[in-house]
Amino acid sequence: MGSHSASQDEGESPFPFPLTDIDRYVLSQTDEEFHYHSWDELKQIIAEHNLSILKRRPSDLRRYMAWSAETKRQYGSMTNFICRERLHWPLLPESTAESGPLFAFRNATPFVDKEDYKIMPNDWPYGLEPGIVHIVVWLKTPLPSTPERGDLTTAGILVVESFVCQNFGEKLAERDGCTVDAVMGDKVMWFKNWKSLQSVPGLEHVHVLLRNCGDDVINDLTGGITPLQEQIKSRE
User: Fold this and answer.
1) How far apart are CA 189 and CA 130, in angstroms?
2) Which of 25, 118, 126, 192 is 20 to 30 Å apart from 141, CA to CA?
3) Rounded-to-integer distance, Cα 172 and Cα 149, Å
4) pLDDT tens by residue, 50-62
C-alpha cells in the first residue's frame, strides 16, 4: 500500500486520505512529466529514511484515491478490506480501535511460522522504473518497534533483515549463482514505514523491493497474485 502523513490536511477533506505536498504536486503532473524512482534513488531514500518522498505515478495516484474512497465506503476502513479480501485473516473479537487488528497466530515470534505472515505484491506500488517490483510482507504479530514513531528497534531490524535475506536474498542468489551478500542492496532492499506514513496503521507490514528478478520469481514468492492496481487497469 502507500504512505501518507495525517498531519497535512485538517478538518473536513474531499479526499479519502490526507494529501501530502508531494501528492498535490504529483496530481498537477501528467504521466509523461512524472519522474520514476530509480534503484539508486530508492537506495538513497531508504538509507536516509526519507520515506515520505516516495510517490506514485499521477494516473495511479488518481486511481488509488478513487479506490480508497469506495473501499472505505463499503468496508469502513482499508484495514477491514485488506484483512477480509486480500489476507483472509479473521479479526479476533477483542480487536479494538486502540489495540488495532488482532489475529490468532501460531507463534508470537515474527516470521517463525509461515501461517503467520503473507507475501504479496503491493496493490498500489510507487512509481518505479521498469524492472523494479514492490512486494509487501504482512504479519499477524508485531515487530519490535519504538512506541512513539513505530521505528524498528535494533532487534526488529535484525529480525526483518534475516527474513529478507533468507526468503528473498537466498532465492535470487541461488538462481544467479552468487552469494546472498551480492544480491542484497543490488537486487533486494527493504524498508518499514513509521506510523504516520502508514496507509494501513496497526496492520504490521514490511516493504521489499526487488530488481530484475523475473516474473517466475515474483509468482513463486506471491503465489501469482495480481495487484489490485493491475486488475482495475484491465477493466478500464
Assistant:
1) 16
2) 126
3) 33
4) 999 999 999 999 9
Count the Cβ atoms, other than its own, within 10 Å of residue 60.
Answer: 20
SS3 of the chain: helix, strand, coil, percent, to 5: 40, 15, 45
- Nine-digit cell string for 71: 473501499
Region 196-218 average pLDDT = 86
- Take residue 82 and report the three cell numbers written for it: 485488506
Q: Report CA 51 to chain centroid distance, whole Å.
A: 12
User: Which cell numbers hold the place of 57?
Assistant: 505515478
Hey, what amino acid is at 43?
A: K
User: Which residue has 542468489 as its cell numbers?
Assistant: 173
pLDDT at 223 over 70: yes
* CA dist., res. 225 & res. 147, Å (int): 33
Crossing angle of helices 58-75 and 228-235, in 10° steps, is 100
pTM: 0.90
The partner residues of 190 in beta bridges, in order of sequence, read 208
Q: Beta partners for 179?
A: none
3-state secondary structure 137-169: EEECCCCCECCCCCCECHHHHHHHHHHHHHHHH
Cβ contacts of 17 within 8 Å, gap of 6 or more: 4, 65, 68, 199
The region of weakest confidence among 11-20, 38-47, 82-91, 143-152 is 11-20
